Predict the structure.
Amino acid sequence: MDSEQAPWHLLVLSLPTAGATARMRIWRALKALGCAALRDGAYLLPAHPEHHDALQALADECLREGGSAWLLSAMPDRTADAQTYPALFDRREDYASLRKTWAETAPTLATLGVAELTRLHKKLRREFEALRAIDFFPNEAGLETDAAWRDFSARIERLRSPDEPQEADGTVPPRLDAALYQGRLWATRRSLWVDRVASAWLIRRFIDRSARFLWLAQPADCPPEALGFDFDGAVFSHVGDRVTFETLLESFGLTGDAALVRLGALVHGLDVGGPLAPEASGFEAVLAGARERLPDDDALLAEASAMLDSLHAHFQRAAQRPQTPSRITP
């Protein structure tokens, strides 16, 4: 049977009874892949090249441990089976369990410090992303949980950054001439985090190369001559579903730079939730570490700027590569 036509991969394996450690390791790997167990030793996944490679690696490991393994391409003989197999991958209960955990955790958030909130947020997000990665047949449960995660994540972010700007109605200002914004004083809240530090980098690299920055204890401290950003009432802040970085891109006509747009998507996902770029978790981890060890926001901006320069170069190179058609099968 042609594996390109068969809709399922079927792994049948058997391990020696003495190999308890190997059995547990392989079982955990099968669970992480999202396999459905047809019976003990028979595991099903939707046909996909990545699934095939991962299952083949587990089959090879099983053979090395002295067991037996067969990786097959499977096609249901009956229409009823074709409808039954996807039901084996229904993640409703798993999503409900996540939402229950978030609901039980929410009342305790106010008792946690910033570092604890950051660790908790990362842990719970990893769990959610792992489940979404194996939700091969999405339904309304995933959409409901995605909305619940955005609310829960925003609650954590409000505690980590109490003055974080709220989404505002309105439109981005008409195209602004960067030549009129040179050598200005720009102000935002101190203790820089993702959107603020990325926006400051964007300002200095692409808008006002002579920019001076003022880090505010609270938004009310912003002097009238300063251009405020990323707080409620600032000149540049969240507009609609855009975070401040994206508002600046639109305002100064920088959306033609594909690498900056990708950076904007990364900042958006980390700041207010949504799909995360593969590079997002690494950037967040390094930024969190830098914020722990550096004495002030000027030093933090300098270090973060090097990271953002590198990410921008990385995205530029990726944008120049020829794109190959995706072969992902639901």
Remarks:
- The mean pLDDT is 87.
